[in-house]
Structure formats: C-alpha cells, structure tokens
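Notes from the 1:1 (GR / supervisor)

We went over the backlog. Supervisor wanted to see one worked example end to end before approving the batch request, so GR pasted a single chain during the call. The sequence is below; no edits were made to it. Supervisor asked that the structure be written out right there so they could see what the output format looks like.
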Amino acid sequence: MTTFDKKLQQCRNDIDEIDQQLVNLLAKRREVTCRVGELKSQVGMPIFAPDRENQLLAKLAKQAQAVGLSVPLVEDVFRRIMRDSYSSQDEQGYQCINPDAGKVVVIGGQGQLGQVFVDLFTRTGYQVSILEKDDWQNADSIFANAGLVIVAVPINLTELVISKLSNLPIDCILADITSIKAKPLRAMMAVHRGPVVGLHPMFGPDVTGLIKQTIIVCHGEQLDKYQWLLDQFTVWGALNYVVSAKEHDEAMAMVQVMRHFSTVSYGYHLMQEDVELEQLLAMSSPIYRLELAMVGRLFAQDPNLYADIIFSNPDNVVMMKRFANRFVELLSSVEQGNKSDFIAKFKQVADWFGDDAQNFLLESTSLLEKAREHK
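Structure output shown during the call:
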C-alpha cells in the first residue's frame, strides 16, 4: 500500500467513525423527540410548531456560519431530521379532543383517502365504523349514536350518498371531503338539520399523517358544534384554511382542474409523438426531469379520480378554452417570428408574479437539488 493509499484509508476510517457518531446522536435525538410526542399527546398540543421550527433553523444557520459550514446544507439536513422527528412524535398517538363525540362513521372508509381518516381517528381513540356500498341495508344501525359522519366517496357519487342521510342524529356532524365544495355543501345542509361542514384535504392517500398538510374548511352550519373537529385536525398537525365554498371552487379550477388537464394533455402529446422516455431522461436537465416525474406520477394513479375532477363542473370547460386560446395566442407570436411580442408578454407575467417569482425560484432550487440526488 502506497503512502497515498494509507492516508486515504485513514481519512475514510475517520469518516466512518464520525458517521457512526452521527448515527448514534440521531438515535438519541429520536428518543427525545418521542418523549416530546408523549408530552404533547397528553395535553393535546399540535405536533407541528412552526415558531419553534423557524427559531431552531435560524439558530442553526448562525451556528453553521460560525464554523464555516454551508447554511443551505445545514438547513437541508435538519429539515430532514425534523421530518423524522415529526414522524416519531406521530407514532406516540394523539390526544382525543372530544372523547364524548360518539361514533365516527366514514362512508367510503375503505377507499384510499377514507382509510387515512379511519386510521387517524382510530389511533386517536375514537370509535370508528365504515360504511361501504354493500352496507346500506344496515345503515340505521351503523349511524346509531354517530357523532360524526364523513362522506369520502368519488365526486360523482357524493350528492347521491348525501341524499340518503336524512335520518342522522340531530347533533351529528355531517362532513364531506370532496374536491368540490359548493354543491355538496348545499346538499348536506338541505338533508341534515344538524352541524354541517365542507372539507377538502389537500393531500393524497399516500400520507401517513397530517403534519404540515392543509385541509380547506368551508363553513356550513353550527360551527360551535364542529369546532372540536377542526381542533383535532390541528392536533394532528394539519393547517386549517378557511374559505367560502364559492371561493374554493373558483380556486380549484386553477389549482386542480387546469393543472391536471394540462398534465394529461402533455402526457397525451408525448404518447402521440412516441418519444423515447429513457432518451429524454438521459438528456434532461434536473428541472425537466422533475416536471416529467410529475407527469408520470399522475398516470400511475386512478384515471377516474382525475376525470371526476375535470368533469365535475361545466364551467371548467370555459376556463380550459380560455387557456387554449392563450396558448394559441403565444404560439402565433412564435409562428410569426414576433420575438418582441413574446418577450413583452413574458415581462407582463413576470411583473404580475412580482416578488413571488424570486421566492418560487429559491424554493424550486431546493427541489432541484433533491432531484439531482436521485438521478
């Protein structure tokens, strides 16, 4: 072994020893965060504490600067560590905000998103029952003593299911978790005289907890009767965002309908062009690889879900046509070689985004760093 090889091996041995120390410290840290989770669950304190997280990251940034370490590196490492900390706290369970709530019934509880709520309510200590399409003959017994009924069925079935719920206990909370809100909310208030609330979880069925997840809340009737439910979401780590049903549906035309339709259209175009995906990936920049991953992710899921969202409201067609017209408008500038017009429109959009454009640039840079790690 040469002198170089010996020195290199010694360096590697030192690194291995330090790595082992880091692993041991991470294990000790997780033990402490588990104790934190136990304490929080006893008093109903939310797992996610944004002020504490921001203070910790600011302190670590100063410590990193003091010893000459990259601040983005330290922030990235500790954000990942904190994600695991939240997970360890999640494993300790949660305080049941309303032990006297009665039975929680999830209609469609065997569906992907329904299972998320069944799991959370069960782990929190609530009595949970599930009603599926073959259980309606036993509906009266299932709904007996129900304190909360959640409709978690596909969009095209939501109003039909709601129409069957006229005999719920008067104090029972009726909620839906559909991605449109105005029509289901009206249907629930028409059929049930008790507390009603419209909910839209802004996450998919692959989540194991609600830490840092958003649940949109559209108030219906008797907020004071379902406030405990919103408080339970907060204890689970979710962020409740309150908005009217009308505002929700208008926003979802952009957040979901336009995005999903554009993604389906682009995937359909790639298929019709019969491109070689492996070649595209081999020659792609990190940002295109990430974009392509998001396109592929959609096509790995249930097409009925996306069809239901896109077809849920006839007004969506009008919005998509406006999008198509603006696409053609920009294409005309390219076709005519009118680069100045294209740049002018680009600048108009940049001005409209304002400071958010720079913020999105920084945020996406962090995502691209992670994408490069998986290449």
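Supervisor's comment: Residues 3-43 form the longest helix (41 residues).
Batch request approved.
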